[in-house]
Amino acid sequence: MSETGQLKEKLAFGSLEVRVLEVRELPVHLFVVRYELAEKATEIKKHASATHTFQDVLNFKIMRMHGDVEVEAWHKHKLFKDKMVGYFRIPLRELENQEVLNGWFPLSQPDKTKIASPHTSEKSEEDK
Questions:
Q1: Mean pLDDT throughout 8-15?
Q2: Model pTM score
Q3: 9 CB contacts (<8 Å, ≥6 apart)?
């Protein structure tokens, strides 16, 4: 293994897997998950239903156990600006002694500074 390869392995603390499984009582088309500078999104649902099942697994490399994982729920509009309907944060330190953190996470109201549309390159179900 090269020196660069060894250095990369020493810098990476591990990996973080985020699974978005379901949303209830909220018309959502997609979720955007952020950790540090990385941003990933779930598949875009064609129709916003009050209950959706997602099968998305989003993976992140983590360098150290600090910071927050932020999850945003978005409603996409064809004619108007996309709208964030809510978000939640999970501090990584809550995961330090656990392999898995399962649960329903209530969404907070969107912060006024975070109403810009998500920058994703994910394809919608219509595009596939």
A1: 57
A2: 0.70
A3: none
